[in-house]
Design goal:
Helix content: 40-55%
Order of helices and strands: HHHHEEEEEEHEHEEHEEEEHHHH
Number of helices: 11
Radius of gyration: 23 Å
CATH class of the largest domain: Alpha Beta
CATH architecture of the largest domain: Alpha-Beta Complex
Number of strands: 13
Length: 347
């Protein structure tokens, strides 16, 4: 496992068993690597065993648990229950690939993956409306998230907030998180209905959150439709890269938090986006030609573990993970260039 994950961080092309074998000059055969990926199924439990010592060294009561999923498109790989069609919110279309739900823990400037679930769709059926064969999961991503939170609690992971985007902002999730003695900060869709007083809630006088009239830089107390407990509501206005203005509405279950505390804490949710970028850019997540569900699942696990190892190196050397990866690329280019000059001299 250590050899394979080091290879994922070292290679800049396709991550293959023959490529790994060539890297170690045949000391490990490509058949051995294939058997390794096919034999044992690596799960979230195995990930926790690997990251646990590091997590214990950086965890704190003010840590946050962040959830988000990512889709890695692989349009030319044969379809199965793992490599199948998912709706990609970034592109706004259905894509074929792997859908990965991650839980990362952020504390003391470190971001560590602590749990993951691969979204599998083993159930096949024919959609009556479209007359097309399609697949569905046995569990929704919201159900998987709640199970992952339960697992983190059983592992005695210390955290105060669960940070999620609007996809996971359901009343059932909110009740589950607060019922476990934790708080949430969640993004809300613009059409989410809220009431600013108990009286309005009882009389069902709800309005869209984007139509609420309250000043910026403030947090107001209100109620979400369908959720019985009061929450703190915040409107955050920000500038996009293209110069346009974006508005983010947040709900927080901790009524002691003010605007700055809520927005500052929620900014940490971006760490999971950085993790996903590192997974795809630094750990060869999409560069494996594996064909079976077992080998594809295990390669995904190895990529997650490789990103964790890169994060540990980043913390120890105080260098950004992407900068570390760039150094590897530069050194590889230098070695290739030096060998090319030797060949020329010999010719």
């Amino acid at each position: 496992m250590e050899l394979y994950t080091d290879y994922l961080l070292s290679t800049f092309g396709a991550a293959t068993a023959t490529g790994l074998s060539a890297m170690v000059e045949g000391e490990v055969s490509h058949d051995r690597i294939t058997r390794f990926l096919s034999k044992q199924e690596y799960t979230s439990k195995d990930l926790w065993q690997e990251v646990k010592p590091t997590v214990r060294s950086i965890e704190s009561a003010e840590g946050v648990l962040i959830f988000d999923d990512t889709i890695q498109e692989k349009a030319w790989t044969d379809e199965n229950e793992l490599m199948c069609w998912h709706y990609d919110h970034c592109s706004g279309r259905m894509v074929r690939g792997i859908n990965l739900l991650n839980a990362v823990y952020h504390s003391k400037e470190a971001t560590i993956p602590v749990a993951f679930e691969l979204v599998k769709k083993p159930i096949q059926y024919c959609d009556i409306a479209t007359k097309r064969h399609t697949r569905k999961s046995e569990k929704t991503k919201n159900e998987l998230m709640r199970e992952m939170i339960e697992t983190c609690l059983r592992n005695d992971l210390k955290f105060r907030f669960v940070l999620v985007d609007s996809w996971f902002s359901s009343e059932e999730n909110f009740d589950f998180i607060t019922g476990k003695g934790r708080h949430f900060i969640a993004a809300l869709k613009d059409n989410r209905l809220v009431a600013l007083s108990e009286e309005d809630r009882k009389k069902k006088r709800f309005v869209r959150v984007d139509e609420l009239d309250f000043p910026e830089q403030t947090a107001v107390q209100g109620f979400l439709k369908g959720y019985a407990k009061a929450v703190r509501l915040v409107r955050q206005v920000f500038k996009n890269k293209d110069g346009s203005t974006g508005i983010l509405h947040l709900a927080c279950s901790d009524l002691t938090c003010d605007h700055d505390a809520i927005t500052t804490t929620y900014q940490k949710r971006w760490k999971v986006e950085v993790f996903h970028k590192s997974l795809k850019s630094n750990a060869s997540f999409a560069k494996s030609p594996t064909q079976t569900v077992r080998t594809q699942s295990n390669h995904a696990f190895m990529s997650i573990y490789a990103v964790f190892k890169l994060e540990c190196l980043s913390i120890k050397n105080k260098i950004n993970p992407f900068a570390l990866r760039l150094k590897l690329l530069i050194n590889a280019s230098r070695t290739a260039y030096a060998e090319l000059q030797q060949w020329r001299a010999a010719a």
